[in-house]
Amino acid sequence: MARAASRPRSWPRPRAAKAREGDRRERHTLALPLRLLATACAFVFMVAFAVVLARLTLQPSPASEALTHTNLHPGRSLRAYLDQPALRDAVKQIGGNILLGVPFGVLVPVVAPRTRGVLRVLLLTAVVMLLVECAQGVLVTGRAFDVDDVILNTGGALIGYLLLGRRMSRTVHARGGRT
């Protein structure tokens, strides 16, 4: 008994303490029917988000064809937005690109729990947004590839993940224990 009391804090906790932590973690996880419903709703919202993303980014814009240019240098478009006399246009461009990424950071970890984690969400978002920008630049009239859009969309996904996605994913999907 005296030995257990003098044990350093770095040693593993007794099994009873670990079991209590596991019980506490499982209490925060939804029951299976609610988990399935939450996942289905997140999937429906993800499809709706994909439709909105496609309409916003892959719709031809012949009126702005002369204004479009490919940007492969990070920060170049951001500086151009901020140098415009109308601050409203800069806020619309930058804020819109950030907001476009937020649903991705919230929904992806709920729909696909294996993507949970900051690096995984960032990597998946960057790849998807890179593909969208490539399609936009190659296939759509009046649109161009812009690396700053990829960066802003990915930043928005990070914000969405940190504010809501991580918590929602942990609530809907338990780590380890339950299947």
From TrEMBL:
Q: Name one Pfam family in it.
A: VanZ
Keyword Transmembrane in annotation? yes
Query: Origin, by domain of life?
Result: Bacteria
Family matches, as InterPro entries: Teicoplanin_resist-assoc, VanZ-like
Boundaries of each VanZ-like domain copy?
47-164
Q: Which UniProt keywords apply?
A: Membrane, Transmembrane, Transmembrane helix
> Does the UniProt entry include the keyword Iron?
no
Where exactly are the transmembrane stretches of this chain?
34-54, 94-112, 119-138, 150-168
Q: Where is this region: Disordered?
A: 1-24
Q: PANTHER family recorded for this chain?
A: INTEGRAL MEMBRANE PROTEIN, MEMBRANE PROTEIN-RELATED
Can you say what this protein is called?
Answer: VanZ family protein
Organismal lineage:
Bacteria, Bacillati, Actinomycetota, Actinomycetes, Kitasatosporales
